[in-house]
Recover the amino acids of this structure.
């Protein structure tokens, strides 16, 4: 299962996305984790082009995605519409949600179990 899904992290800050990826790689060494942080110019913000390119770079066809703030969600939704990948994104706490998902995917838990655990981390 761990090789069936990839994890995409979308953040307004490249360093934040990369830092969360570093954390996730400690518990999910066999799960592909990619980031789309900041704008294409290296500024704070998000970039549809950057998100779309990162999303389409996954070898996996199934992606679980996490984002930090509203415009990241908006650009992620647009990228998903343009992609052939099967992407599920979660309105869960960015770090905790991504960490939980990556750890469970590494343990080969079914997606339903991942989603059950993420329910407690939903941002309201």
């Amino acid at each position: 299962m761990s090789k069936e899904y990839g994890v995409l992290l979308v953040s307004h800050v490249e360093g934040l996305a990369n830092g969360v990826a570093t954390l996730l790689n400690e518990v999910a060494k066999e799960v592909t984790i990619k980031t789309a942080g900041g704008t294409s110019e290296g500024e704070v913000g998000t970039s549809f082009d950057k998100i779309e390119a990162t999303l389409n770079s996954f070898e996996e066809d199934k992606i679980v995605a996490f984002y930090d703030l509203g415009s990241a969600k908006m650009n992620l939704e647009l990228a998903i519409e343009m992609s052939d990948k099967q992407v599920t994104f979660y309105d869960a706490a960015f770090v905790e949600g991504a960490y939980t998902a990556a750890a469970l995917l590494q343990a080969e838990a079914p997606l339903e179990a991942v989603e059950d655990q993420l329910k407690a981390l939903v941002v309201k």
Observations:
- Residues 5-121 form a domain with the Rossmann fold fold (CATH 3.40.50.510).
- The helical segments are 14-27, 48-56, 70-81, 94-106, 111-118.
